[in-house]
Amino acid sequence: LFRSLGELSTKVLGNMKVLEGFLDADTKFSENRCQKALPMAHSAYQSNLPHNYTTTIHKNQLSQALRVYSQHARGPAFQKYALHLSEDCYKFWSSGHQLCEEIGR
Fold first, then answer.
1. What is the DSSP string of 47-99?
2. pLDDT per position as a tens digit, 6-22
3. Mean pLDDT over all residues of the chain?
4. d(CA 64, CA 61)
5. Cross-strand pairs, 98
6. Do 49 and 69 form a contact (C-beta atoms < 8 A)?
7. Which residue from 73, 68, 7 is spatially nearest to 41, judged by alpha carbons?
8. For 45-49, what is the mean pLDDT?
9. Would the pTM count as exceeding 0.85?
10. pLDDT tens across 48-70, in order?
11. 69: phi > 0 → left, psi -120 to 50 → alpha, else beta; which?
12. 44 burial level (CB within 10 Å; 0-12, 13-18, 19+)
């Protein structure tokens, strides 16, 4: 079948390169798709927000943003960008939009 170990090695390496190409294409598609979904999700988060708002409103808006994101994002980059979205929304809220709340009555 194969004349030498070197010939087998070459064949295996060639097949691995083909598989890497498919994975790269899938990853690139996913990265692109997830990046395009972020602005829509950010808009959903910021939709109809008062200037300052509570933790409850932040969590509700974040849930809405993640729903919008999940409708458009796909593939291996999904979780990476979902985490970016959550972090971005938290940074937006905590940078001058967080309403002071009474703690433990």
1. TT--SSB-HHHHHHHHHHHHHHHHHH--STTHHHHHHHHHHHHHHHHHTTTBP
2. 676 777 777 777 666 66
3. 88
4. 5
5. 53
6. no
7. 68
8. 96
9. no
10. 999 999 999 999 999 999 999 99
11. alpha
12. buried
pLDDT, position 105: 47
Separation CA 76–CA 99 (nearest Å):
36
Residue from 80, 86, 74, 97 nearest 42 by CA: 86
Distances (CA, A) of 30 to 43, 71, 87: 21, 13, 20
Environment class of 73 (CB within 10 Å of its CB; exposed 0-12, middle 13-18, buried 19+): buried
**What tokens does 35 get?**
């990046």
